[in-house]
Write a structure and sequence with these properties.
The chain crosses the membrane at residues 22-42, 48-68, 88-112, 118-136. The protein is mainly alpha-helical. It has eight helices and two strands, in the order E-E-H-H-H-H-H-H-H-H. It has one domain. Strands 1-2 form a two-stranded antiparallel sheet.
Length: 181
C-alpha cells in the first residue's frame, strides 16, 4: 500500500502507511483451524490435533497478542475514509465466510465418513465451534457496514453459530440504547 497523504491539523502535509497491513491476514487463522487440524492429523496420525481450534483460540492468539503488545498508533482521522475504501481490508473480512463454511462442510464430511473416536469427534466439534464463535467478530464488523450485501453476509456468518439474532439485538438494541449509533 502506498503512503496516504493528508494534512495535519496545523496545516502541514503528512503521510501515513499501515505498517501492519499484511498482519490482518492473521485473522484468517481461526477460520483455517479445521484445515490445519486435518493436515496435522493426516500428517502425524496424532488425534490430539483435532483440538487445534481451542489451541489457536486460547493459546496461539493470546501469545501473539502479548508479543505484539499494545498498539497506540492508530491511523490519523484524516485517512480513515481512504482506509474504509481500501478493498484489501474488506477482502480480509470477506475471506472468513467461505473458509468458515468450507471448514464446516469438511467437518460434516469427516464425521460422516471417517472413523473417529468420541474424543476426536468432540475435538473436531470444538474446533469448528471456535471457528463459528470467532466468526461472530467478523459478523459484527460486516453488520456495521453500509452496503446491504455486507449486512447480508453478516447474517450468513452468524447462521452457523445459531446466533442470527445478534444482528438485530446488537444493531437495534445495543447501539440504540447504550453505545454509539
Amino acid at each position: 500500500m502506498a503512503a496516504l497523504v493528508y494534512t495535519e491539523p496545523d496545516g502541514r502535509p503528512a503521510t501515513w502507511r499501515d505498517r501492519k497491513r499484511y498482519l490482518w491476514l492473521l485473522a484468517l487463522i481461526p477460520s483455517s483451524a479445521t484445515f490445519i487440524a486435518v493436515g496435522l492429523v493426516t500428517a502425524t496420525g496424532w488425534n490430539v490435533f483435532w483440538w487445534t481450534g481451542p489451541l489457536i483460540a486460547f493459546a496461539l492468539i493470546p501469545v501473539i497478542d502479548i508479543l505484539a503488545g499494545e498498539d497506540g498508533k492508530n491511523p490519523p482521522d484524516e485517512v480513515i475514509d481512504e482506509l474504509e475504501n481500501d478493498r484489501f481490508y474488506r477482502w480480509c473480512t470477506y475471506a472468513y465466510l467461505p473458509l468458515q463454511y468450507t471448514a464446516f462442510f469438511l467437518s460434516c464430511y469427516i464425521w460422516a465418513r471417517w472413523d473417529l473416536s468420541v474424543l476426536s469427534n468432540i475435538g473436531l466439534a470444538v474446533t469448528i465451534g471456535v471457528t463459528a464463535g470467532i466468526g461472530i467478530n467478523t459478523a459484527h464488523e460486516l453488520g456495521h457496514k453500509k452496503e446491504s450485501v455486507e449486512r447480508w453476509l453478516s447474517k450468513i456468518v452468524l447462521a452457523q453459530s445459531a446466533y442470527g439474532h445478534f444482528y438485530l439485538e446488537h444493531n437495534r438494541g445495543h447501539h440504540v440504547r447504550v453505545s454509539t449509533p
